């Protein structure tokens, strides 16, 4: 039950009636008509901008149009009062019975409350993490993994057909560096001094890989030329790194549907096919790029390359796909990879990139638009940096990793649930501070604690009610006399519960799962506020031992709140707490 969507349908129906009767021009675009909570709760329960957005195209005075619309809305039995404010805004106040029906809907649906058919089964590919298979995942990957996973869950909750995908960057020069680094650890396992020269990966995490290579090959590869062992060691080490990455993801409860190998694009004709697609569209040509703006690099020279006309699709400059020596650029396999997504039938693509990939956004969007002839959309989400603190100081790097703090370091310190929730307390494009002391403290200033505490409080109330002999199943609570929850604080909580289905759709449309975390903090605050008012006004307490019928009604309200918190935490990938320890 989405009461905001229901009331919007009533507004639209009234406008359509006015159009049919000639009070409004026929065929007006009603897509921008919104029904939302007013900025000031004193103005009512909802507000609509209908008259403001339609006045100009209708050629009418906005206030006069609002008054005509109000006269029709007043006949809706759910609307207690409809008034015009200012130049033509309409404020609506609903009858109390609406909020009791919202509570019943939440109890009947359980964690499915708020699920939407907004996505209508549209196929969405969410590609996230996609870390190079050259070592353990670091804290930046952690934020990207949490964001991408929560976004995929949010879209699924909103009715999209979602595929979670990891692109294994195993086709570039970095995996050759991995192979050389692993070979030095292989030499070390054979009793030789490793030569971890500049440019190789120094972390201790490659020591077990070297030992595994020794177990497989013995001393067979020692003193052989690189050409004799590079390919085998590269495949062996890459596989070992991907096993480590899968373990890291499992620590965060992240599970991928697809792991797609970049290497599989080479030698299979797929890169050639994607570029041929662009050539058939007249978007590939041989040319010379203009020199970069500003100071020229010392090695700059004009040279003819194979270029993609990405400027035709909003990019700043055309982009090379093949170098003058005939080798593919880094962009070429990425084009081919996204061409496979289009070929697999996805309607919408989402890429989650690190902040350092900002310069890649326009060219990638241009490629997808061109390849699909604007039929498939691409949204790229950039993940800003995470700064780690502990005891008031920056958290030190991992010795095991060699150069950075790993995902495993973070999860072992804070736990998966805390890590996931806190990584979503800022919008993805805003920097995030992760202070181990603050994310573990038990206070209102710690969002994850505050939300979990709200859910645990409801669980404790339910346990108390069971001791009194009450049936606290959702079905039984839905049959309680919910009209008894008539205090303004109780009504405020019911109204917040009613906002949940609307919030889901807003967050899904914007691809912004952090909105869920924010909303959970707000609804937890309302629950805690009602709890504390019960300390001052005993009749607001959830358990009324002298009136079990009233207790059932009040517990139904608390349970409906917990239903929303549980559903929201489920989207974020966090397990709801039954008790705090």
UniProtKB/TrEMBL annotation:
Give start-end ranges for motif 'HIGH' region.
131-141
Report the residue ranges that make up the DALR anticodon binding domain in this protein. Answer: 451-580
The residues covered by the Arginyl tRNA synthetase N-terminal domain are 5-94
Supply the EC number(s).
6.1.1.19
**Which Pfam families does UniProt cross-reference here?**
Arg_tRNA_synt_N, DALR_1, tRNA-synt_1d
The catalytic activity, as recorded, is: tRNA(Arg) + L-arginine + ATP = L-arginyl-tRNA(Arg) + AMP + diphosphate
What HAMAP family does the entry give?
Arg_tRNA_synth
Supply the name of the protein: Arginine--tRNA ligase
Species of origin reads: Rhodobacter lacus
UniProt lists the gene as argS
């Amino acid at each position: 039950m989405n009461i905001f969507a229901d009331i919007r349908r009533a507004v639209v129906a009234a406008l359509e009636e006015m159009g049919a009767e000639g009070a409004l021009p026929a065929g007006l675009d009603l897509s921008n008509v919104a029904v939302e909570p007013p900025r000031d709760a004193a103005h009512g329960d909802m507000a609509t901008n209908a008259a403001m957005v339609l006045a100009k195209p209708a050629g009418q005075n906005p206030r006069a149009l609002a008054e005509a619309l109000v006269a029709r809305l007043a006949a809706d039995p759910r609307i207690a009062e409809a008034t015009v404010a200012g130049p033509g805004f309409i404020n609506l106040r609903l009858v109390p019975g609406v909020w009791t029906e919202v509570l019943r809907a939440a109890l009947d649906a359980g964690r499915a409350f708020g699920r939407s058919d907004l996505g209508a089964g549209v196929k969405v590919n969410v590609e996230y993490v996609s870390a190079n298979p050259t070592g353990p995942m670091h804290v930046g990957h952690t934020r990207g993994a949490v964001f991408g996973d929560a976004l995929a869950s949010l879209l699924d909750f909103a009715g999209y057909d979602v595929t979670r995908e990891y692109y294994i960057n195993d086709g570039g020069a970095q995996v050759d560096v991995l192979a050389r680094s692993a070979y030095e650890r292989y030499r070390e396992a054979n009793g030789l001094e490793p030569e971890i020269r500049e440019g190789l990966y120094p972390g201790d995490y490659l020591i077990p890989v070297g030992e595994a290579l020794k177990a497989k090959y013995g001393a067979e590869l020692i003193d052989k030329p690189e050409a004799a062992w590079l390919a085998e060691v590269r495949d062996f080490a890459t596989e070992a790194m991907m096993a480590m990455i899968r373990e890291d993801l499992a620590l965060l409860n992240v599970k991928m549907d697809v792991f797609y190998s970049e290497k599989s694009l080479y030698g299979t004709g797929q890169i050639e096919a994607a570029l041929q697609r662009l050539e058939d569209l007249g978007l590939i040509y041989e040319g010379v790029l203009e020199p970069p703006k500003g100071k020229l690099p010392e090695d700059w020279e004009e040279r003819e390359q194979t270029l993609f006309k990405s400027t035709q699709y909003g990019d700043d400059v055309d982009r090379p796909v093949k170098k003058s020596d005939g080798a593919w650029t880094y962009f070429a396999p990425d084009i081919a990879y996204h061409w496979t997504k289009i070929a697999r039938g996805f309607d919408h693509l989402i890429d989650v990139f690190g902040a350092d990939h900002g310069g890649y956004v326009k060219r990638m969007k241009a490629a997808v638009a061109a390849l699909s002839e604007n039929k498939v959309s691409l949204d790229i989400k950039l993940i800003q940096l995470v700064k780690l603190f502990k005891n008031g100081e920056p958290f030190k790097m991992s010795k095991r990793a060699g150069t950075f703090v790993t995902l495993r370091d973070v999860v072992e310190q804070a736990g998966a649930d805390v890590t996931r929730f806190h990584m979503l307390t800022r919008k993805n494009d805003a920097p995030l501070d992760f202070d181990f002391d603050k994310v573990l403290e038990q206070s209102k200033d710690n969002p994850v604690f505050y939300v979990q505490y709200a859910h645990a409080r409801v669980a404790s109330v339910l346990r108390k009610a069971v001791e009194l002999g009450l049936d606290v199943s959702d079905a039984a609570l839905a049959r309680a006399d919910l009209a008894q929850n008539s205090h303004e604080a109780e009504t405020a909580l019911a109204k917040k519960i009613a906002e949940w289905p609307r919030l889901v759709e807003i967050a899904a449309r914007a691809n912004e799962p952090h909105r869920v975390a924010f909303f959970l903090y707000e609804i937890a605050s309302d629950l805690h506020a009602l709890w504390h008012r019960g300390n001052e006004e005993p009749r607001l307490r959830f358990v009324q031992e002298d009136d079990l019928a009233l207790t059932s009604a009040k517990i139904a309200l608390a349970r409906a709140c917990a239903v929303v918190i549980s559903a929201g935490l489920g989207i974020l990938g966090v397990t709801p707490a039954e008790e705090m320890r």
